[in-house]
Design goal:
homodimer; 6-stranded parallel sheet; 11 helices; 50% helix
């Protein structure tokens, strides 16, 4: 029988969007977060039950998605400090979709701990941002057993069926995490090189709006160049995604590459650039603020 | 009075396309190249006159576009070894559009030599590839005096008016060259990081076609990733644009950055990657062959 009682743990931008999409899809939706505010918002949106610790209603659940920030938080909500995490209370066989961005080694370790409790895991990082999460149009890059995909289908349909996509990247835990990591490698380097190119154009005295126009109509374009350099042109570094997110994500790229014994010359350089930007005080600004570490240039001011 | 007699010097893929576009636009088109074959092709396409050295009919010309490979060749066709280049034979005031990819210093030096002969220059690199050149849909990134743009308008319309675009990036010679250089910085790094990411995915055991599918539908995409990694998936390294082109272009990026006294951490790394690929014997393969320098992975074979 198809699952009906689903829970999203971690109700930030992505998690709240996922939970609301589950409600819209007609699933009995539960939610957990440490923020009272977030719990209240989800309750008003139609959640069945909300709690700070999903262990409270774990025996009612048929599927769980963990959408906290990183592996450490995932470990905390799942296993807790004294075996008080939700994983110890779930019925055996309940599938757990772990959707935070983390290294492959962390994904494998969580998979093993869940397996020991009889809980199948989908290693299922997501992307798309808050707007797509709200629309039920997430992209999910997942690895796991075919039957785990099958059982989770109603929840996967709810969060991605409205224009998103679910990629099955293999059986082993860690593969889903790695696909996201490789994607973040590209995203991070593309932002850093966009900054490098625009900074060089500024130094050369090229009008930046013209440079932007040329690149976005030519083969040198990237999704990130087009999106992030628009912030630089406006001089607006309000964080949509912050510099420190890429310090974290390129850190995970580095860890994963180390575990794979593999060189990443460009990503290593981009990691240094974002780390330097963070140390310069731009950690909480938009990730395009990495351009501010290039000295000797004048950038557009906010109007 | 609008110019009518125009000449394209350098009838390779881009130059031949430009010359044919001028013929299609109803201009009296002249052509010059060291290849008899190229001259024959253009004559049959309707050129008024063709020659190995455009100096032969220079007194008939009202505009010239130089579309040879680099600054050294541009200097040769314009100035020759013993003042036998076309520049010495052009009527004073004849505009010269120099469209090869070169460093800003080279563009400025050519501008000065042309100015000394009373010839205004448009520093006007182009992009778009052979198909767009043939269609009269080139992108032109040009700097020069407003009146030089004005006089050259019929020729600019012919080569870019059919879906391309002419960018006016300023007055000074060197700015057009630099815009192209900054564009090539992005293009080169995007190819190199696409290779790095796909190589890491291969090492991790992720199916490369799935990785490609994820990236091309997400924020980590770039024009180059989408275009070049398709070659890697097919195992087809037939050169559309070769590794050695990016050794050259990222070399120009490096020279320009040095002249600007500006750091280019990512482009410097990408330059090393392409140079290493060239030394490994892949110089004449498709530029995506830079992925072959990553050891310890298995890449798709050509079917």
């Amino acid at each position: 029988m198809a699952i009906k009682n689903v829970c999203v743990i971690g109700l930030g931008t992505m998690g709240m969007g996922a939970a609301k999409s589950c409600i819209k899809a007609g699933l009995n939706t539960y939610g957990a977060d440490i923020s009272d505010k977030a719990l209240e918002v989800l309750k008003e949106a139609g959640a069945v039950k909300v709690a700070k610790n999903a262990a409270e209603f774990a025996d009612e659940l048929e599927a769980v998605q963990v959408l906290v920030v990183n592996a450490a938080q995932a470990n905390t909500v799942l296993f807790g400090a004294n075996e008080d995490g939700v994983a110890y209370k779930l019925k055996a066989g309940t599938p757990v979709m772990v959707s935070c961005t983390m290294g492959a080694a962390d994904a494998k370790a969580i998979d093993e701990k869940l397996a020991a409790l009889g809980l199948p895991m989908l290693d299922a990082p997501v992307s798309g941002g808050g707007v797509k999460a709200n629309a039920g149009a997430m992209t999910v890059m997942a690895s796991g057993k075919p039957e785990t995909f099958e059982v989770l289908k109603p929840m996967l349909d709810a969060i991605s069926g409205n224009g998103g996509k679910v990629y099955n990247v293999g059986v082993e835990a860690g593969l889903g995490a790695t696909v996201k990591i490789v994607h973040q490698l590209l995203a991070g380097v593309h932002i850093a090189v966009a900054a490098e190119a625009m900074a060089m154009a500024a130094k050369a005295g090229i009008p930046l709006d013209t440079m932007y126009d040329v690149v976005t109509h030519a083969a040198g374009n990237s999704w990130m160049f087009e999106n992030r350099m628009a912030h630089v042109l406006k001089g607006d570094y309000t964080p949509l995604s912050a510099v420190d997110i890429f310090v974290k994500d390129l850190g995970l790229v580095t860890e994963t590459a180390k575990a794979l014994h593999f060189p990443i010359p460009l990503a290593s350089t981009a990691y240094s650039m974002f780390t330097n930007a963070s140390n310069a005080g731009y950690g909480r600004e938009d990730d395009s603020a990495v351009i501010k570490t290039f000295a000797g240039i004048t950038l557009p001011e906010k109007q």
